[in-house]
Automatic annotation (TrEMBL):
Residues 161-181 have a biased composition (Basic and acidic residues). Pfam families: Fer4_7. Keywords: 4Fe-4S, Cell membrane, Iron, Iron-sulfur, Lyase, Membrane, Metal-binding, NAD, Quinone, Repeat, Translocase, Ubiquinone. One of its GO terms (cellular component) is membrane. This is Formate hydrogenlyase subunit 6/NADH:ubiquinone oxidoreductase subunit (Chain I). SUPFAM superfamilies: 4Fe-4S ferredoxins (SSF54862). Residues 34-63, 70-102 form the 4Fe-4S ferredoxin-type domain. GO terms for molecular function: 4 iron, 4 sulfur cluster binding; lyase activity; metal ion binding; oxidoreductase activity, acting on NAD(P)H; quinone binding. Residues 153-181 are annotated as: Disordered. It comes from Hydrogenimonas thermophila.
Amino acid sequence: MVKMFIESLKNLTKKPETIGYPHTPSPEPKGYKGTILYDEELCIFCDKCEDICPPGAILFEIVDVENNKREYSYNPYLCIYCHACVDACPKADEGCLVQSETRLPPLGRNETLPKDKKLGYFVNRIEEAKDFDKKWDEFEKRARESREKLAEHKRLKKLKKQQEAKVKKEAEAKQQAEANK
């Protein structure tokens, strides 16, 4: 009992061992898996990161169906930081998709959203934090529709090519028949 009392007195004069959470954020450990950062200039738009992402935090929206132009969008508040997208990226070694050792601040109603080109298009277009979830749901729908439009465009393009080949083949057959007369 006396030992415990003496230890208590010592602890009253020592600096606290704890951190000042929530007023001071806790430091990330070395190798912490944080926010995914993207470099559009290095991307080959293979969609592997989008396909492998378990929660669907990475989406590409096709903004120009004719030229297959895509825009990368990332939801850091949906991401589970599993690193699967970085593992799947064929250009990750070059820095196309990397996982930083920092995290974004929690998304509160009055918070300002982080703006960074490396977070993709979606985050940079949202003005108010309170609209984030609603806008992401709308974006998911729009991205899905853009995929359907691209698939339809490719289907029609393939049909057109097949028809052109058929017409060409018929014309060649007709020419061959006339030449044989």
